[in-house]
Design goal:
The protein is of the alpha+beta class and 648 residues long. It has 21 helices and 20 strands. The chain folds into four domains: 121 residues, Four Helix Bundle (Hemerythrin (Met), subunit A); 66 residues; 181 residues, 2-Layer Sandwich (Heat Shock Protein 90), CATH 3.30.565.10; 127 residues, OB fold (Dihydrolipoamide Acetyltransferase, E2P) (Beta Barrel), CATH 2.40.50.180. A six-stranded mixed beta sheet has the order 12-16-17-15-14-13. Pfam families: CheW (PF01584), H-kinase_dim (PF02895), HATPase_c (PF02518), Hpt (PF01627).
């Protein structure tokens, strides 16, 4: 039973607007700490809290009204000069905003929030009365501080490429007999483990479907292509914070909706034209002018559908600043908790990204920002001893490059030492000494993404358990992205995340092997080459080809999926995966396409991201090359080398 009977719609509007307003207040509070005498900033903060208090009063949320009233009085005394801002007073204010956010969580579940802790209320009263205070840094008032992970090893076993279950799935999808058309390999492969502008509308967001864990093999291909619930990324655990369901609505500028409406009308007119031409052709009128009109109408429809598709995709795009605005408060609280002086500089907030990707990107960015403040930045004493400014800078930026978004987290801290990372990985038993000695510095930096890796000897409430960076990389890869590292000892580190603009549509290259089509992500494709057998050389037991003085390994797609080749591959797709390049040998090509991936309900073999429909209506499996390559190595040393050197 809801505690807000008859006011659910008003409640949702209040939560949406007030949550954004509170995030703005948090960021302005961080700015206020740098400019405590900025009256304009104080007035903005005062108005923000007053608006939240007014909405809470209308909904009869007395605990929030009481807390906001005390905090509002505190802001009033600050702007009137009756009080001077100190770190302790700021801690009390931020603790209050954190409790208000917790109250939002309770209200999102249609429950009246509990009153604020009496200690916090007394603390605010003491500040208002001018009595000395010493508040603890609000370590839990910001974003979640840990990432709770379910290890990937506990997921249900997946059918492997080349196994009977994998071929059975393929037969079920395509109605073929792979055992006869392309016999599987005899030996199965081993596996590796601010308020919005008033001219907006709010509409439901349809989540982008992502593959789910396998439970059973389903033979009906139409059943397999039914939409499945989107997979949920590992969410951080919180303390004393109510967890609410993910947002299922999105605000859209009416200009974008008008564009969709106009295009829909144009398509309707073109449809009427095609209907008339169809009637003419059915009646036997197939002269030159009629066929020319048909061709023009189809061409017009093609352009309009493309424009409509782009316009609809833009309705899902949201400024990444809505995500970034959470992090100044996060960095400030953690820096104060650790006794460091850190400033988070944000740029590129106007860059747009798919709404569903914004939600799933939050946890990786939370960990990377925290990691920069905790691991990357030195203490004030260490920075001064090396001649650096006592104030450290962490930069968070976003830019659009082509059809991808680049997000960078940069710090001017101590940097990472590859030799120390290798030694720690050996000490923790993650790699052996022989493997460690074979890694160069760039490959050594990638070791931090291994489960269980940590450079901290002591476990704290911030870090040291070796849980986090591996989850960051896993979650980025689930978004069809990649993460790279650059670091200079004594100067700092840079983490670069590359993501597609949207997950709803994926550009692919459709190839054929054993007469069956497969789709590979176009983002990994560098170029297409012809394979001549005299060019193939064997190096360390692996087929290679030299392309512009670069030695590249050749991987047969047929072998990767466990089939026997029916002919020698004629073509190669030069592919780039993280820091490693290789050539994927295939029989032929179908061409480039933009596809909508549908997950395979209840089943996902390794190496398969989902399925799509081709232009002729046939089903095409979309390959997950990272997963496919990592699942095809036979022994543990080869598996480890592949994960570290090939970054797959």
């Amino acid at each position: 039973m809801s505690d807000f009977g008859g006011m659910e719609d008003l409640l949702q509007d209040f939560l949406t607007e007030s949550s954004e307003l509170l995030s703005e207040v948090d960021n302005k509070l961080v700015e206020l700490e740098k400019r405590p005498n900025d009256r304009a900033l104080l007035n903005d903060i005062f108005r923000g809290f007053h608006t939240i208090k007014g909405g809470a009063g209308f909904l009869n949320v007395d605990p929030m009204v009481s807390l906001c009233h005390r905090t509002e009085n505190l802001f009033d005394k600050l702007r009137n000069g009756e009080l001077s801002l100190t770190p302790e007073i700021m801690d009390a204010i931020l603790a209050a905003t954190g409790v208000v956010r917790d109250m939002f969580g309770a209200m999102s579940q249609s429950r009246q929030p509990a009153p604020a802790d009496q200690h916090l209320l007394q603390l605010l009263d003491n500040v208002l009365e001018g009595r000395a205070t010493h508040a603890e840094p609000p370590a839990q008032a910001a974003e979640p501080v840990t990432i709770d992970v379910t290890p990937t090893e506990v997921r249900p076993p997946m059918p492997q490429p080349g196994s009977p279950d994998w071929n059975q799935l393929y037969d079920g999808l395509l109605g073929t007999n792979t055992a006869q058309a392309a016999p599987p390999a005899a030996t199965p492969s081993a596996t590796v483990p601010a308020y919005e502008a008033p001219q907006t509308h709010t509409i439901p967001v349809m989540p982008v479907q992502t593959p789910v864990s396998p439970k059973a093999v389903v033979q009906d291909p139409m059943t397999l292509l039914k939409p499945a619930p989107a997979a949920t990324l590992n969410k951080p655990a919180t303390t004393g914070q109510q967890l609410s369901a993910p947002e299922t609505t999105i605000r859209i500028d009416t200009v974008r909706l008008d564009q969709v409406l106009n295009l829909s009308g144009e398509i309707g007119l073109t449809k009427n034209r095609l209907t008339t031409l169809r009637s003419d052709i059915m009646s036997g009128k197939i002269d030159g002018p009629t066929l020319k009109s048909l061709d023009e109408a189809i061409g017009q429809l093609d352009l309009l559908v493309g424009d409509l598709q782009n316009a609809v995709m833009k309705t899902r795009m949201q400024p990444i600043g809505r995500l970034f605005q959470k992090y100044p408060r996060l960095a400030r609280d953690l820096a104060r908790q650790l006794g460091k002086d850190v400033e988070l500089v944000i740029s590129g907030e106007e860059t747009e990204l798919d709404k569903t990707m914004l939600e799933d990107l939050n946890d990786p960015l939370v960990h990377l920002v925290r990691n920069a403040v905790d691991h990357g930045i030195e203490t004030t004493e260490e920075r001064q001893a090396t001649g650096k400014s006592s104030k450290a800078i962490v930069e968070l930026s976003a830019t659009q490059v082509g059809d991808h978004i680049l997000i960078e987290i940069t710090d001017d801290g101590r940097g990472m030492r590859p030799d120390v990372i290798r030694r720690k990985a050996v000490e923790k038993g993650l790699i052996d000494i022989e493997t460690a000695n074979s890694l160069d510095d760039k490959q050594s930096l990638q070791l931090i993404f291994m489960p269980g890796f940590s450079t901290k000897d002591q476990i704290s409430n911030v870090s040291g358990r070796g849980v986090g960076m591996d989850v960051v990389k896993t979650n980025i890869q689930r978004l069809n992205g990649r993460i790279d590292i650059q670091s200079v000892v004594g100067e700092g580190s840079r983490f670069t995340i590359s993501l597609p603009l949207t997950l709803a549509i994926l550009p692919v290259l459709v190839v054929k092997v054993c007469e069956q089509p497969f789709a590979v992500p176009l983002a990994m494709v560098r170029e297409i080459i012809t394979i001549r057998q005299e060019q193939v050389q064997e190096v360390s037991g692996r087929a290679t080809i030299v392309v512009r003085d670069e030695i590249l390994s050749v991987r047969s797609l047929a072998h990767l999926i466990g089939w026997q080749e029916t002919q020698l591959p004629q073509f190669g797709v030069l592919m780039q995966s993280a820091e490693h390049s290789f050539i994927l040998a295939v029989d032929s090509f179908v061409g480039r396409d933009d596809v909508v991936i549908k997950p395979l309900q209840n089943i996902r073999p390794r190496g398969i991201a989902g399925a799509t429909l081709s232009g002729d209506g046939s089903i095409v499996l979309v390959l997950d090359m990272e997963d496919l390559l990592s699942s095809t190595h036979a022994d543990s040393s080869a598996i480890m080398t592949s994960r570290l050197v090939e970054q797959l």
